[in-house]
Amino acid sequence: MTQALIELSDLGFNWPGHPPLLDIPAFRLEAGETLFLKGPSGSGKTTLLGLLGGVQKPGRGSIRLLGQELTDLGAGARDRFRVDHTGYIFQQFNLLPFLSVRENVELPCHFSKLRAERAKQRHGSVDQAAATLLAHLGLKDESILSRRADSLSIGQQQRVAAARALIGQPELVIADEPTSALDYDARENFIRLLFAECREAGSSLLFVSHDQSLAPLFDRHLSLAELNRAATSAEV
């Protein structure tokens, strides 16, 4: 069997003084795969994403990303590994409002030499990588690059957040409810653009949402309750 991009084994997590939140015997995400993960609020989705990013450590079990056991790394090493290999699209986008669009998109390359080098190799420069990604995601007017992030519409902010996640070709892109503010047609259009960019970069996509109508667009779709033995019967 080939090495998975993500491989979880006997993963367990609970907050101090609380019952188990996650109990996942096994899970794999393959390189280049798009996966839709569904779960209601409070089901542990955000905690699982924190574990995959190395923000938190599990109570037990194994988390391997690109063959690296994350639980073997210290906090600083996990942070460096995350910024090198993972791009995030957050529900609230988390753009820095006082920075320009270009500065927001290029932020990962300031923290990751690996992603900066990949951007330069693929596009000639980090600046050109940012402009190209934004154009591919539907923001083709170059004047937008100098605008402050807080001057953008919700749809524009979403695309800037996606470009920031994709710059430098991270192997994994995690999207946490990124389409919740859009209508269905806009959601589907955005997802298809995101798929195209992930395919071109060779990135896997883990897309977390409660909106089951989007699931058929993905290579594979799962409910967190299918993975998580700690889930209540109401979540299944």
Automatic annotation (TrEMBL):
Keywords: ATP-binding, Nucleotide-binding, Transport. Residues 6-236 form the ABC transporter domain. One of its GO terms (cellular component) is plasma membrane. The keyword Nucleotide-binding applies. InterPro entries: AAA+_ATPase, ABC_transporter-like_ATP-bd, ABC_transpr_LolD-like, MacB-like_ATP-bd, P-loop_NTPase. Transmembrane segments: none annotated. PROSITE patterns: ABC_TRANSPORTER_2. Gene3D superfamilies: P-loop containing nucleotide triphosphate hydrolases. GO terms for molecular function: ATP binding; ATP hydrolysis activity; transmembrane transporter activity. It comes from the Bacteria. This is Putative ABC transporter, ATP-binding protein. It comes from Pseudomonas fluorescens (strain Pf0-1).
